[in-house]
Each structure stands twice: as structure tokens, then as C-alpha cells.
Input
Amino acid sequence: MSASELSDTSKLCVHTITTKPWSIEEAMDKYSEAGIGGITVWRQWLDGRDIASVGGKLRERNLEIVSLCRGGFFPAKTQLGLDEAIEDNRRAIREAAELGAPMIVLVCGAVPGQPLEESRKQIADGIAAVLPLAEEHGIRLAIEPLHPLYADDRSAINTMASANAVCDQLDHSLVGIAADVYHIWWDPDLAAQIQLTGEKGRLFAFHICDWLTPTSDLLNDRGLMGEGCIDVRGIRAMVEATGFSGFNEVEVFSDRWWSQDQDEFLQAIRSAYLKHC
Amino acid sequence: MSASELSDTSKLCVHTITTKPWSIEEAMDKYSEAGIGGITVWRQWLDGRDIASVGGKLRERNLEIVSLCRGGFFPAKTQLGLDEAIEDNRRAIREAAELGAPMIVLVCGAVPGQPLEESRKQIADGIAAVLPLAEEHGIRLAIEPLHPLYADDRSAINTMASANAVCDQLDHSLVGIAADVYHIWWDPDLAAQIQLTGEKGRLFAFHICDWLTPTSDLLNDRGLMGEGCIDVRGIRAMVEATGFSGFNEVEVFSDRWWSQDQDEFLQAIRSAYLKHC
Output
């Protein structure tokens, strides 16, 4: 399967963490000037800001707010921990509503040593607990399956199939999946799972970056599209074949790129997007 | 599911790479003195040795030779590369026969940027090409599914299901699976896949170690059993429930442990084995 080349950046979204050195004020001006269509705001970028006002400024700059990143981290070993996680996710939903973001990305969480089955149950219970508030504000919750290398302490949901299982269980139109190429590219069942996710109407988001060989850091050594081994265009084709017409969200954690001039990096993102996605 | 505690080290096997600073001569004496029942020999440890003579010395010390590690790395971008890989695997089969090892572990290989489907096809073709020689010498070939974090350049076989698919395709009594907890512990389908592998009579080997949180290096920061988050005993129970009665093979790549006194490390291995496996 292959997709046609992208001819413009109207469907390009950048996560604020991708240009980590920039504040939300810098990011919104830079993204807007570069003709980028969308922005996913990480919650830390809202610290100390009037959230509604930030949302207004983003809309003034014609940046579509794709999602708020991130909720999740539901599993815990104590009832207090479980309760705190639910409260934090409720805060995230209120923040999304204030910002004008229609969706929250969930990095679901895991506790080292706790059986993954138990964590998965806590994740489903946690999402169920915050769903009434999500309904009230009309906020979608996108479960992001994380690469199995993060199964110890970041997420017990490590495949599209596992994310689909939680969605099946909750069976709610506001609960879907954020598919990130970094986490799922290796999956032998990928094409079928993306198709299924689309058929169920729950493919909510599509994140892009690349996997470097070698990878020097488990968290902050992602590549820009084209720098690594992921067939981003091929996966985009699978995603678009489901009818998905949302944004292609660039989410790159990279100490290497963060240490460079961010204006040049943003240009590199635009070029890589048009050339490799 | 849970397994009973281990009461002795008769089913404990150590990979020579686990005690990397030791030569094969040192390793065989030390393992034997420590009452360890089995050894898996990495091919580099045979460099410059008379292989048959090493095999004899291992048997004299009552060390059961569990397997030769490793063959594989079949995928390549050129015909020459494919041919060379097959030749190297034939060499490994001859070495195993000379050593008196009944089995070779296959780290199947992958080429960055080459579609995983293509690599999987090359892997199946490569194994098929060396099977006649394996038959001649009666050497089992154990496909080791590798953690998806190695899908870029080490193996395109990243789940038990994927390994089982190749075994189904080749459908040969000498082709089976080496299950390593490091690679498979996160798999939501693990229990069912281990059971299936056993039912098909192809669960050939069981490797143990642990997953550290945090993990500082993608290759050489494995933990000793009990140091990390893997339920080794629980997975051993699944393995033994299939009727598996082979060795529990300790395969730890660890710059941290390799930098320490290896006699003390071997004692730590024995203790961890009896306490956590």
C-alpha cells in the first residue's frame, strides 16, 4: 500500500514537545508563520497560563488545536494512587475544554512489577471513571498504544489489538485510539489492526516520527521522518484507507534536535514531512 | 499460574556471554564447580579452539551442552548477503555437531528500512535452505523471537505468534522456538502462545533474565532475575505446564555485571535462580 505525496502542510500538526525549547507563545507564532495547520499542546506548556486565553490565541493564528497531551497513567499500587490518577485525568479534561481541544491523548500507565493484566484492568476502570466528565465536555479520549519497550513503567497497552480490546470493553464513542508509528510500526498485525480500528470508528489520531538505528536513548532519541527505518508513508496509506482525514502529528522527542536551532528544526520538519510522509 | 521454587541448580544453564570476561576454559571450570547443570556456548568462545575437544571437556565436567548460540541473521539486501548468511548458518550447524550441541539458537535478523514482511520471508527461506544439513546432523534450530525494540536491525520475528507462523510454514520437527522472557514478557497473548508452542511440540528452549526500570542501554543493560519487573517464575510455570523439562538458561547481557568480579556474579546468578525463578 502506498499514499500520494503530501503537497502542503495544512494537515501537518506539531506537538509542542517536539520543539521543546520553545514556550507556547513562541511555538504558536513559529508554527503559524511556517504554515503549519495544527498544534497538539502538552499540558506543561500551559503551566502558569490562562488556558482559555491560550486557546483563543491559537485560534487567532489559525492553528487547529488537535489534542491536549497527555492524560493516562491510571495504574497504581494503592487506592490513593488510583484516585489521584483519576483526579488528574479529570483536570486534563477540564483543561482540554478550556483550551478548546477536542481530544486528550492517553499514555495509559504501568507499574513495574505489577502484572500487566492488572494494570490493563485499572486502565479500563480509570477511563470509565472519567468518561462522564468527558461526555459533559464532549472530549474524546485517545488511547495511545505504547511500544512494548515501555511496558514496564509507561503503558500496559502495547499493541493496537490491546488498545482495541479496551475500546471494545468500554464501547463508547468518545473512546478511541491514537496510532503512533514509533510504537506500532513493527507489529506483524498492523495493517489488519488499523483497518479494524477504522471500521470501528475509533481511529482518532495519527502520530509520526521515525525509529533510528542505532537508538541511543530509550525515550529521547526519536528520529525525524526519513531518518530511520519506519515506512511512514506506507502506514499513512493504511490510516487514510480507513477514511481518516485528520492531522499528521509530528511528535519527536530528541535530545539531538532539541539542542539545535529550533527555527532550522522546524524547517527540517516541514521538509521531512513533504518528502517522507 | 505459579511454579514451585527451584531446589537445586541441575536445570540451571548459563550462557557463556553471561560471564563475558571468562574464556570457555574458565567458564567450564567455574560453572562445573558451582554445580551448574548446563552451558550454552556462544560461537565467539570457540574462536581458535579445537571445537570437538572443547565439547569433550564440557562433557568431562558434566556440563550438558544445551545449545550453540547463535545462527540466524538471514535477511540481506543483496543475493550475496543472503548467500553468505546461509553459508554462515551451515558453518554453525557443523560447529554444533562438532561440539556436540543438539540445538542452535537463531537470532533471525532484519535490515533497517527493508519491509519486515520481506525479512520474514528471507528468514523462512534461509532456514529452509539450511534444514537439509541440520537433518544430516540432527541439529534443532530454535527461532528466538526478539523484543520489538530490535525489529530494526536484529530480528523481524518479534512475537511468539510470529515465530509460530514461521514454524507452521516450515512444518519440520527440527524447527522450533527459544522463548526468552526478556523478549516476550510484555505480550498480552503470551500464555496462549506458550501453550500453543508446547502443543505443537516446538518449545525448544527457555531463556531467563530480567527487565530493569530504567533500562540505560538497549542491548547491554539486562537485569539478573529478581532485579526487574518480569514475573520469571510465572512464565516458567506457563512453560513447564506444556511439559517442557529442559534447562532454564540464564542469558544476561550487562555492562554492569560484566564489570564486577565474575565469581561473585556467578554466586549471584545461583542465588537469584533459586530465589526468583
The beta strands of chain A are 12-15, 38-42, 64-72, 103-107, 140-143, 175-180, 203-208, 248-250. The two ends of chain A are 13 Å apart (CA to CA). The longest strand of chain A covers residues 64-72. Residues 147 and 184 of chain A are 6 Å apart (CA to CA).
